[in-house]
Write a structure and sequence with these properties.
Oligomer: single chain
Number of domains: 2
Low-confidence stretches: none
CATH architecture of the largest domain: 3-Layer(aba) Sandwich
Order of helices and strands: HEHHHEHEHHEEEEEHEHEHEEEEHEHHHE
Amino acid sequence: MLPELNEAEAAHSAALLARITRHISEAGGFIDFETFMNLALYAPGLGYYSAGSTKIGAAGDFTTAAEMSDLFARCVARQCAQVLLLTPGGSILELGAGTGRMAAAVLRELAALDALPEHYDILEVSADLAERQRQRLAALPQELRSRVRWLQQPPATPFHGVMLANEVLDALPCRRFVARAASFEELGVTRAPNGLAWATRPADAVLTTAVRELNAALGAPLAPGYASELCLLVEPWIASLAASLSRGAMLLFDYGLPRAQYYHPDRSGGTVSCHFKHRVHFDPLIHLGVQDITAWVDFTRVARAGQAAGLAVLGFCTQSGFLLGTGIDELLREAQDAVEHARLSGEARRLLMPGEMGEAFKLLALGRGIDVPLVSFTHQDLTDSLGPDARELP
């Protein structure tokens, strides 16, 4: 059972419901799920990521690997160090930096490795999170603090170095569909007497084409009644970043699957889920503006979007494979005493174990001008699972 909304949360949710309801009315009584998700997460002043509630950590709705343990960020820093060595004078751009904990830990580790970037840029859509980042990073030594900058949009000038995105792709709004015997329907949102409800309409040309292409790629049509989602914003999002990347790598961490597993016949209800006060549930039409809404990532779509934008797939692995490839075992051996080793070992288990985060979360690396193998994939490389063309150069 989900916790009850407090008075402030209930008022906030009601205000966003009113805004979404007006939007539905203006659209003729139906909005697609992409529009709904965009409003629920990003509506100015009311969307989940636009409002001021605590989102990440014990007092929020979910946690991430970077918030769970600095071991994750230290391993990220080791991969960044390799790319920065290949791109002298390069910088790091973090997309959606959460509370700033990963940025702080990456900078400290890079300083220890004598591999600091020219700049550590942060592109953050949440004003609340940006303020939390500023407060945390203000505590860094001046040498590190002075390298941090906040951007309003991707770099306009050629960027070289590392682009980091940890649990960003899952928050891109997606469209939902239902397969029928000879066509497809769009699953969207309409008004209900006491809130919102699901509704369907015939899929438009864009969604129909996208699902037909998906069916062709899968090799067998989705069964009638199969419901899922497609994130059509992946391609423009990757393309906008690729346009800035002159040389370097994108490291994309998220939970998701290769396409063949994502659209497996047994996964017939899609992957949209919600996070509210560390409870996971599957009704995005409630608790508007005070819960996170996400969908798993189709990493095959992301890889092909990268190739279409002129980037090479540099590797794909589980979070466990990434951590082992970048030397988490070495970091555990650096523990100063038995107490610290026990603490770090517990954190490592949560990061590595299949039943925790080790298998569900993945790393996809895309890049331009990187012609040596990345250390992230020395333990495991699952690129072939993304499809037969995943290793083709753009």
